[in-house]
Specification:
The chain has 377 residues and is α/β, with parallel strands linked by helices. The chain has a domain of 252 residues: Aldolase class I (TIM Barrel, Alpha-Beta Barrel). It has 16 helices and 17 strands. The strands form 4 sheets. It has a 9-stranded mixed beta sheet, with helices on both faces. Strand 5, helix 4 and strand 6 form a beta-alpha-beta unit. Helix 2 runs parallel beside helix 3 and helix 7 packs parallel to helix 9. The N terminus is likely disordered. The protein binds iron/sulfur cluster. The site of iron/sulfur cluster has 10 residues, from loops.
Length: 377
């Protein structure tokens, strides 16, 4: 693994040669009706065993290189108690950290307090991702979640007071009872909280979720597109950079960790159901707690061919506003991207722009990215 000395803070450059690590904590205090993630109800009789297994997985697989980002997600990592959190951070101490590391911890609003923030701060966390999703009581009820604007404001003020200067808020939209005015109200409230980063998710109803089982109908496609457009316009007006299809940030607060995924770079995934991409193979961990506790971590391993890697590069990098750097593609694969994919049609009808050494999808076509990819693959 090639290591580099960081001589500048260009985030995308740093993503090219250093790895990230994702750690999955699958426990939640309650289950959201739309959730398709690997999760289970919090039960403290399992957590210490889970953390022991996580430690073994990390010790068996981590190669000791410096990491540029760590992301603790879930599940709900913030639902762990003090002892569990301290054990988790002791395990993670094995990671060598880049001096400019981005270290994210996912929190539920209700778990945020001085005690939690103190532990996070002491452990080096410098980015919080808070899953608010919506402030609308009708949508929250459908999701089996809770959030209150005044509570969010006081919790975020507390985070600021405790020194957290990089906060992401998640927003979900696209419920079949939702209209554009409900969405606008949610966006306005989120903007008043002044997060550095906003991740948006259009609701997808998966069959294996409570919503899927209840046969909840999806939103009308045209309305979904209108909502996406509303989000883009409102956030852009407030100075957020639409740097990835669903992600917006203040300048300089783009997520290293996510850019690393979208640039098709390698990363570790540790924990139940986690995915990783190391030494040219992608792996998926088991979702069975029993198997995981017995040390059977990997469920699937897939060595990627050069063609698959190039296709992944295309699909992931086109999610970024900047798109694909043609020279970087050549350095990675030894092939000119235009000899691999036929861009003639998509460039002619302006689905793809080729400019200043980059190939990218213009923002006004982000919403139809899947259709554009279909023409290329
Ligand atoms: S959405 Fe998050 S908090 Fe809700 S059940 Fe899934 S993992 Fe847990």
């Amino acid at each position: 693994m090639k290591k580099i000395v960081i001589i500048n803070k260009n985030r995308e450059k740093r993503c090219d040669s250093m790895k990230s690590a994702y750690i999955h904590i699958p426990f939640c205090k309650k289950i959201c009706t739309y959730c398709d993630f690997c999760k289970m109800i919090y039960n403290n009789s399992w957590i210490m065993q889970y953390l022991d297994a996580l430690e073994s997985e990390i010790n068996d697989n981590y190669d000791g290189e410096k990491l540029k980002s760590i992301y603790i997600g879930g599940g709900t990592p913030s639902c762990l108690n003090n002892d569990e959190l301290i054990k988790l951070f002791n395990i993670i101490n094995v990671f060598q950290r880049d001096e400019d590391i981005e270290f994210t911890f996912e929190c539920n609003l209700c778990d945020i307090n001085e005690n939690l923030l103190g532990i996070l701060k002491k452990s080096g966390v410098n980015r919080l991702s808070i899953g608010i999703e919506s402030f609308d009581s009708r949508l929250l009820e459908i999701m089996n979640r809770s959030a209150d604007y005044d509570d969010a404001l006081s919790k975020i003020n507390l985070c600021r007071k405790m020194g957290f200067e990089n906060i992401n808020i998640d927003l979900i939209y696209g419920f079949n009872i939702e209209d554009v005015s409900m969405l606008k109200s949610d966006i306005k409230k989120i903007l008043k909280l002044q997060p550095e980063h906003i991740s948006t998710y259009s609701l997808i109803i998966e069959d294996n979720t409570q919503m899927g089982i209840s046969k909840i109908k999806p939103i009308d496609q045209d309305l979904d597109a209108k909502m996406y457009d509303t989000i883009c316009k409102m956030l852009k007006r407030k100075g957020y950079n639409h740097y990835e299809i669903s992600n917006f940030s203040k300048i300089g607060y783009e997520s290293f960790h996510n850019i690393n995924y979208w640039k098709n770079n390698e990363y570790y995934g540790f924990g139940l159901g986690a995915h990783g991409y190391i030494m040219g193979f992608r792996y998926e961990n088991t979702r069975s707690l029993n198997d995981y506790l017995k040390g059977k971590f990997h469920l699937k391993e897939n060595i990627l061919s050069k063609e698959e890697k190039m296709q992944n590069e295309l699909m992931l990098s086109l999610r970024l506003k900047k798109g694909i750097n043609i020279k970087e593609f050549y350095h990675k694969f030894g092939t000119n991207i235009q000899q691999v994919f036929d861009f003639n049609e998509v460039i002619n009808n302006k689905d793809i722009i080729y400019k200043n050494g980059y190939i990218f999808i213009p923002e006004n076509k982000f919403y139809v990215m899947n259709e554009i990819l279909l023409k290329l693959l």
